[in-house]
Amino acid sequence: MQVKIENLSYSYGSKKLKVKAVNDICLEIKEGEFFGVVGHTGSGKSTLIQHLNGLIKVQKDSGKVIVGEYDLTDKKCDFKGLRAKVGMVFQYPEYQLFAETVFEDVKFGLKNFYPNLTEKEMEERIKKAVETVGLDYEKIKEKSPFELSGGQKRRVAIAGVIVSRPEVLVLDEPVAGLDPTGKREFVSLLHALHNDFVKTIIIVSHDMNLIAENCDRVAVLNKGNLVKVGTPKEVFMDKVKVEEWGLELPSTAYLTEKLREKGIEIDSDLTIKGFIDGYIRAKGGEK
Amino acid sequence: MAILSAENLRYSYDKKSVALDGITMSVEEGEYIAVIGHNGSGKSTLAKLFNGILKPESGKIIVDGLEATDKKSLFEIRKKVGVVFQNPDNQLVASIVEDDVAFGPENLGVKRKEIGERIDFALKAVGMEEFRKSSPTRLSGGQKQRIAIAGVLAIKPKILILDESTAMLDPIGRKEILSVIEKLNKEQGVTVIAITHYMEEVISADRVFVLDDGKIALTGTPREIFREKEYIKSIGLELPTASYIASKLVEKGLLEKGEYLTEEELLEGLCK
User: Fold this and answer.
1) ipTM of model
2) How many domains is chain A partitioned into structurally?
3) Are A276 and B164 a contacting pair at CB < 8 A?
């Protein structure tokens, strides 16, 4: 499913006091991309992504959002069908767990979207989802979500979203509050999901290292405007612009920039491995 | 003199597991301390014990000469130890910034006139004077967190504990908070205990305590801590990005062996 946003604007507030949260945004996210959205607090990231599954409805004469076959501006749009296809994981999703057991929690969304599945079919899907997020289904299914560790809770929350087999998975600050290992494991889970469960991943994050390391392309929002779309390399190329947007450079981009000032040109995709390889090339190989 | 000392602290939330298992540590007045450790290592529990939110099962905590486990001194302890948590939205109580900052000192029975002075002082310290009459809901995350810190400063604590206070902020918000904290530490002599997952925030601390499974696994300067590369990794932590890149380049023979904690140090090494 391709995500297509055309001239999207959105304002909060009353008629008298309107605040534009996003302003005339045009953006296409291709099927299969690992896509990042960055911007300072209040730049419009959340408003933008909440449009993708219709949590925020497109306002009158304020542009278009088309996700696969769903035209969200169409009055007859099947929002329930859309929400099964576009999974949304909010910040600290573990706070949204509520059921008595992990099984019931994961089942909730599935039953909501696919009430006609038999119990057996549901159980199969729940098992697959729980195992996909790296948890031991038999051990965990009857546990209370509240007995689990932070990282496990977050996995259960993700299972509750992917159980309805979305094609697009949108995650808001997915690694905030996780320790370094939790973060690393979670990022590899996202790549595993990307490879064989969901087609497109869209993450919103303040962590520029995370974005540079993992995203194919990045969109930058600044004060509600889309100011740049491109590969991490294209986006973080211009230090002055990045500061203007209220962001910071990923470590690799910072080092590349500083080395350039010293006359050492490093060509890399800004991943850590890419940077190291680029440096080795610039120095004419290993020693 | 130690402003805070803990002796053999134990705490568990339930019978099955121990959150803190014999913590002994001491912090000098004016120090900037970082506490690191993986999720569930006991960091936040420690913060809650230090200002009396939780009571240890056994062990002793002395804060500025007062015993924290003594119920009678709890009120005094809370004046001395301020805690700022992760989410500013959970800490702001009033609809006007100045009322929010006044909430703490009002509760402690500070006189009306002095409260005004404390609001001035606290808002100035975090650089938010001009927002005195604003509504916290209209502020950015970094600004809200600065108000939360001001609310704690208005109590004039001697010790400021930050429990992952920058985790939810954007890069600019994080930098704002860190520079405010550094200033408070350097200029006002406030003792800072920063609990964090950001290895970059650890580098500027005077000393680091590494927690693992409710025990202090390692103490030292940031440099000493990150020298223990393998150990740091083995307990679920990681090196600052610059150190990691440096270690790879050393392996490839493109960088002299040495200690590279910050990007600046790495650059210096690379440009030799």
Assistant:
1) 0.83
2) 2
3) no
